[in-house]
Amino acid sequence: MDHELHGRLDELQRDPYPHYTRARRTEGLVQVPELDAWLVARDADVREVLRRPEDFSSANALTPDVLPSPAALAVLGGGFGGRPVVVTSDGARHQELRAPIVRGLSPARVAAALPYAAERAAALVDAFAKDGHVELMSAYARRLPGEVIGRIVGFDPEDVPAVVHGGHRAEELLFRRLDEDGQVAAAQDVVTMQHILDALIRERRDRPGADLADELIDSLAPGDGELTLDQRHELVAHLQNLLIAGHLTTTALIGSTVLHLLRHPRQWELLCAEPDRIPAAVEEAARYDTALQGFRRVTTRTVTLAGTELPAGSSVFVAFGAANRDGARHPRPDEFDITRASGRHLAFGFGVHSCPGSQLAREQLRITLEVLTRRLPGLRLSGDHSPVIMRPTMIHRSPEALHLAW
């Protein structure tokens, strides 16, 4: 991707909503050069694509914006993974890969993790509550989700920071422009994470436990024999994908939710006065500024969508964030309103690829809002810093930094 086109992509990603509005108002589908894809922006059309996985394959769901340099790829060659994962699979293979994740994130497993999540949320807030100011992304939003999913998977808490850091670096390597030295450093962090995942997998093969890691191993590599190198690569790929989805999306959702509540002080005050509204606030925040803006799909045959004929092999960007601002589904779609009647949004996807961790994400956001409204009702955006800038990405949309005061 040339420099000018990447600059336009950066602009689109930081604020995609005007592009979505134009696309919804345009008859048929719109081809977006910055995404190298047809943009699917209307709620009904997004749902149609998600209902037809046989026509719209997920094989290209994680196509990177940036191809790592040869030097970075050489570093990655010393790691593990590189296999298709649940979000890039279709049909029976997708169901096979998804099943252990669904079991591992069952309502009972999520419920069992909530006391720990509440304890960690309180401790993280305790660490800065007396300071009168905080940068929330680094002090809280990037920490709680990783600690919670790390516990569910079965990591030693000492390994969680490196695993979380590796997940952020994997996203940065594939979706941000870095110089060669920066790419190599990011790749080294990713490989460090992958070796931690491989160590956990081999340890659990020898000494099984009862965590999500065991669900994956038992499902994808049944038996008790020594894991082959190919099995280790496959298991690391799935565990890495699960972890990144399990913490980066929730981190983004926490940051964006707090941002929009504080940009609407009366709604923040209402939430502090009436905490029973917190679940509704979670849903409105997820709808209004969706953390996972969308995924790519590729057509498996010639299909017609919204009156536009798409040949086989056409790339489409299925924009959940655009569908969630569609006035045909959500009245006053561009207004942030935690009192609105709940509608069926697409923040966690829809159909066979809907997010199996959606309840865990919702619960962590609920816990976050409960502790912040109770402990820091005077919370506000800090006036000592420049305007909040959103990260240029379509998969984990959130503030780059969120400076708060009270």
From TrEMBL:
Keywords: Heme, Iron, Metal-binding, Monooxygenase, Oxidoreductase. The keyword RNA-binding does not apply. Coiled coil: none annotated. Pfam families: p450. Gene3D superfamilies: Cytochrome P450 (1.10.630.10). Belongs to the cytochrome P450 family. This is Cytochrome P450. It comes from Streptomyces lutosisoli. The lineage of its organism: Bacteria, Bacillati, Actinomycetota, Actinomycetes, Kitasatosporales.
